[in-house]
Amino acid sequence: MRDSFTAEWNSALAALDPAAAHSADAFAESGDVLLLNYPGELHDPARTAQLPPHAFLGSAVREEPLDAEVEEWLASSDGPLVYVSFGSFLSVRDDVLARVVAALADVELDGRPVRVALASGATEHSALGDVPAGWLVRGFLPQVTLLRRADLAISHGGNNSVTEAMTAGVPLVVLPFSTDQFAGAAALEDAGLAAVLDPNAMTGEELAGAAQRMLTLAGEPRERLVALAGSLTREPGPQRARAALSGAAVHR
């Protein structure tokens, strides 16, 4: 991994400055400012104080091409929508995805059954069990497009999933598997913006209950989510990055 990342680093460096010296280990590099693609509102102030000069970018939401099949599916109903994705790697956990399908089959919002858009990745459709009619299941789905219409997202808690859901104002059920997913899940849970379950130990009933709670998120947590989404939308990540690199908006 180090060698492949360093090769990509040097390729990008050469494109920016052909005369720049190549790096022997990109993981050992550091700069004048640390840019974090993450909302500062979710970062523990005690840990923030330990950072070098830095700027929280909030989110850098991707642009996506129009997907005719997804647009047609979205237009077919105004029922409550749950988006499910474990990213490109963790979608191999067909056992957990199958448990999610079974748990969501009976979940309702205001008396209406949820409809689900599920990115199955490497998992075969047949491994998901009985998928209710009207659900959208594909190996890959346009996440940003679906989050903008979703009432709830169920995710492994990767950075893109978290930041894009927060920008769209969508509460989460997070099932963290590894690495930074645990810290992100804890921050979201502390803020009241997500329910967190162990994907290896949860029951279908626990997942259904967590989904129901987050679908009906109200009060101060909902207000906090709306405020965060507004902040991330008004000042996108690239805009914050430009300000940081120009010397402004850097926390020291």
UniProtKB/TrEMBL annotation:
CDD domains: GT1_Gtf-like (cd03784). This is PGL/p-HBAD biosynthesis glycosyltransferase/MT3034. Keywords: Glycosyltransferase, Transferase. Belongs to the UDP-glycosyltransferase family. SUPFAM superfamilies: UDP-Glycosyltransferase/glycogen phosphorylase (SSF53756). The keyword Aminoacyl-tRNA synthetase does not apply. It holds the Pfam family UDPGT. Its EC number is 2.4.1.-. InterPro entries: UDP-glycosyltransferase (IPR050271), UDP_glucos_trans (IPR002213), UDP_glycos_trans_CS (IPR035595). Coiled coil: none annotated. One of its GO terms (molecular function) is UDP-glycosyltransferase activity. It comes from Rathayibacter tanaceti. Gene3D superfamilies: Glycogen Phosphorylase B (3.40.50.2000). It is an enzyme of class 2 (transferase).
